[in-house]
Amino acid sequence: MKTIVTGGSGFIGSHLVDLLLDEGHEVVVIDNHSTGRAENLAHVAGRITLKEADIAEPGPWASAFDGADWVIHLAALADIVPSIQNPESYFRANVDGTFNVLQVSRAAGIKRFVYAASSSCYGIPDAYPTPETADMRPQYPYALTKRLGEELVLHWAQIYDFPALSLRFFNVYGPRSRTSGTYGAVFGVFLAQKLAGKPFTVVGDGTQTRDFTFVTDVARALFHAARSDHRGEIYNVGSGATVSVNRLVELLGGDKVFTPKRPGEPDSTFADITRIKRDLGWTPSVPIEEGVAELLKHIDYWRDAPVWDPDSIAGATRDWFKYLGD
Hints:
Layout: E1 2-6, H1 11-22, E2 26-31, E3 49-52, E4 70-73, H2 80-85, H3 87-108, E5 112-118, H4 141-159, E6 164-169, E7 171-173, H5 186-195, E8 200-203, E9 209-210, E10 212-214, H6 215-227, E11 233-237, E12 243-244, H7 245-252, E13 256-259, H8 274-280, H9 288-297, H10 310-316, H11 318-324
Parallel strand pairs: 1-2, 1-4, 2-3, 4-5, 5-6, 6-11, 7-10, 8-13
Antiparallel strand pairs: 9-12
Helix pairs in contact: 1-6, 3-4
């Protein structure tokens, strides 16, 4: 099996590469390292083919798809505030990039295509746990562009009988997660603060809950999707539980300070995973306590990450309140 992983140098992508290699795949990674890190694949150097390229621009990277069996499309720009400040970059990476990968994959006759979508497309949902049939309410350009990419994938499955699926990830965490950002990468923020002996910056009162899903579980979900016979479907990927941010602080251990609640953020994220368990035979296996303990073993990864405090967070999220506030 030959598998293409776009964004394979990133957080989730690098763990997927590990799994694919364990399963005996030939792996080709395409990444421009805009968010991924080459160090995430240093341990498998020589066992993979790495092509540094920008999928938003057609180019020679397309030749890597010749003879490929699977394409797992993870490459994307993430985070809220940068997407508000620079929506063009997000559209290019997440929409144009997805279009280009779809076209190249279809031309190459690949057998399976799996798209990494985002639960942020639900916005503030009406129901918890949230099913795949919930209304789409993207609150900011990042969420919108990920949803537009998903629409492309589903349309290609419908019109061209393209063998594609979309997986909507909830709050993924684990080793190699992003070392910067004030939203989405909460573990990166907290672990850098812990290393620096600083208090954890908790948004709101910390009672909000999140569906934290360990990264190896997410990699397995992608693998299950790729080897299935389903197409044109959407599946939530979550842990089957929710955890409050205050509970997360307890597990990490340390003091906390509070920052203002942010507009457009739900009080809870909680995936209904009935469909993926039924159709793909996937279930999460890593409880939050075990996942946090594993993460703390790798805490030195965040040694050089920025250490946020209430003042720097306020400055970095000013546009968040400006554009998303009432």
